[in-house]
Amino acid sequence: MSGQTQRLNVVPTVTMLGAMKARLVGATRGHALLKKKSDALTVQFRQILKKIVSAKESMGEVMKTSAFSLTEAKYVAGDNIKHIVLENVQSAAIKIRSRQENIAGVKLPKFEHYSDGETKNDLTGLARGGQQIQLCRGAYVKAIEVLVELASLQTSFLTLDEAIKTTNRRVNALENVVKPRIENTISYIKGELDELEREDFFRLKKIQGYKRREIERQRINAKLYAEEQLAEKISLQKGVSMTSAHNLLSAAAEKDEDIIF
Question: pLDDT grade, residue 79 (50/70/90)?
């Protein structure tokens, strides 16, 4: 991109000047709104980032606890615990549903876990290890909750990141390309209109000068015609030539006297 911002190719008229000013107002308002949207998304982005860091820190502890509880359950109940669990499970007790949350016009996906029906303690009545298996189950349920929360935060994080990049590109385009181009176009139209106004003023001055010269010429012609008629009248009344009549008129004009017939 060159150092000097280009202008739009428009016809320099008063109507186009008004249209460009309206476009500049709209671009300014759009830039302000997009800037506020970018700031709001950035605040939400930082909040989600803090939650992700906290969730990841807690996830390590939760996964470690659940893995240790599984080891304890296997130690107490034996290695056949897997087959017993699979035989007693008919459907998933914990399910996940998704919804959307609107943040400054950006729809963020949210995942929530919920229990489908009551949790049955079928494994509690086992000959040995029932209580430990229930503790292991509770540890893994907590791990699932943390994973669902982390997945929701991570998805929202990526969506917000892309939305912030898009919004910032639009803000930069309005600030560095669109608005300067419209402002340059307005300056160009104003300059052209001023030039046209100067040309019209010069044209009017020339017309007025021509009219004044025409009026002066007509006045002189009328005066000469009147003098010619008067000289002819004097020549007929006094019986002198036209030259003598003109001389009499000139002498009378110099003395500022009226000729008596």
Answer: low
Give the chain's end-to-end CA distance (angstroms, integer): 91
Which domains are seen in the chain, by residue range?
14-192 (1.10.287.3240)
pTM for the complete prediction? 0.62
Measured in residues, the chain has a length of: 261
- Burial 175-199, CB ≥16 within 10 A → b, else e: eeebbebbebbbebbeebeeeeeee
Q: For 143-172, how does the pLDDT look when each residue is reduced to its tens digit (9 = 90+)?
A: 888 888 888 889 888 999 999 999 999 999
Closest CA to 112 of 135, 95, 129, 124: 95
Backbone angles phi, psi at 212, to 5 degrees: -65, -40
What is the greatest pairwise CA distance in the chain? Answer: 165
User: If we measure between CA atoms, which residue out of 185, 173, 164 comes closest to residue 45?
Assistant: 164
Q: Kindly give the residue spans of alpha helices, DSSP state H, lying in the chain.
A: 14-77, 81-88, 130-173, 179-238, 242-255
Q: Tell me 119's DSSP state.
A: P
Centroid of chain to Cα 12: 24
- The two tokens of residue 221 are 């012609």
